[in-house]
Structure to design on (177 residues):
């Protein structure tokens, strides 16, 4: 019964918080902290990680820590992955979870890496951003809770989503051809 309850809670967070989300950051964070794992699109169990602030500071650079753990934003056109056009997978810099395929990346002209879609809907948590002056949805890694960027509804058709992501929150793994 415990496994079912944990899975139900996880599915509830993912289904109710995916695009677009009506829950606040605190509601999403509280629900996420209660979970110990989630199920990805392949049916694999992905364990959620939680680390104390001091441990994050040891493994992340100051700018990565500011973005991933303090919900910061890098300066437009400054990210090292903005102009990356190599084929591969973008992963969370905090925990390595796959987040975006390079085939979904496009030049939005905004100054941040932008994607039309996600690698796996279960890998991204969303929350209505209450701190931004713009109407946006915050995007967070489902495995480590790291802040990735924001979702906007001005992207290319057919979905018209723009996943606007900080380069400092991403790593890149080149795929072999």
């Amino acid at each position: 019964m415990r496994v079912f309850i944990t899975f139900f809670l996880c599915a509830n967070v993912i289904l109710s918080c995916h695009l677009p989300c009506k829950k606040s950051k605190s509601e999403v964070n509280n629900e996420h902290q209660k979970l110990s794992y989630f199920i990805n699109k392949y049916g694999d169990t992905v364990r959620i990680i939680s680390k104390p602030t001091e441990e994050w500071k040891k493994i992340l650079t100051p700018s990565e820590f500011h973005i991933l753990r303090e919900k910061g934003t890098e300066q437009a056109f400054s990210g090292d992955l903005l102009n990356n056009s190599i084929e591969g997978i973008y992963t969370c810099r905090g925990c390595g979870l796959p987040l975006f395929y390079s085939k979904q990346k496009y030049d939005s002209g905004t100054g941040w890496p932008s994607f039309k879609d996600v690698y796996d809907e279960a890998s991204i948590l969303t929350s209505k951003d209450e701190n931004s002056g713009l109407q946006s949805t915050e995007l967070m890694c489902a495995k480590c809770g790291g802040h990735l960027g924001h979702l906007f509804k001005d992207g290319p058709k057919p979905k018209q989503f723009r996943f606007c992501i900080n380069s400092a929150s991403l790593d890149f793994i080149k795929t072999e051809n």
Q: What stands out?
A: The chain has a mean pLDDT of 84. Residues 2-17 form the longest helix (16 residues). The CA atoms of residues 88 and 159 lie 22 Å apart. DSSP finds four helices and eleven strands in the chain.
